[in-house]
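ok here's Protein NDR1-like:
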Amino acid sequence: MSESEGCCKCCCSFILTLGLTALFLWLSLRTDKPKCSIEYFYLPALNKSLNSQQNTSIYFILQLNNPNKDKGIRYENVNLTFSVLDNLNKTHQIGYKTIGGFYQGHNKKAKKKDFVETRGFNGTAVSGEALNNKTVVFRVDFATAVKYKILLWFTKRHKLMLGANVVVDSSGEKVDQKKGIRLKSCAPEPGGYYSAQVAFLVNLLIITFSNFRLRS
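and the structure:
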């Protein structure tokens, strides 16, 4: 076998190894953000079948799904802000709740059942509006920071800001209680971090191989 054929085989083998390494690194470092939703939302003050206008608390269930099959997620404190929308579509904050940080395993779900006592919320007035307009629109904003666990180490801190509108009818419950309301991202996704890492490692391998060829 000639020297040129041996060099060609070596180059092909290196390119294949480089491609497989880059693919492995990309799969290992790529993460999917948690999927969060409001599964239950209830205000007794808006329930027309009850005489409970004085109870202006909001009872809710927040569900958090980790879609990563091989990566855990560590959540910092989860901050929830509750607001009500007026006729001009302006939000008025009425409540705030903090859920303590926790760790979520691979491909796991977590449900956080809690309530928030509202402030500056006139249940009687809004109840009348719900009766006239059939529905009242609330806003739930979600803010936290997460770290992804890959093998034995955690990634850097990533901020996560989500939100969604919740439509409540005269029963005091969100419309269609059987279906959760997905909280959608309120900020651009930080997608370049892992791509930059993979590109750096690939370039390092190419430089190393080039230096090896020059010395040969």
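+1. The longest strand covers residues 135-150.
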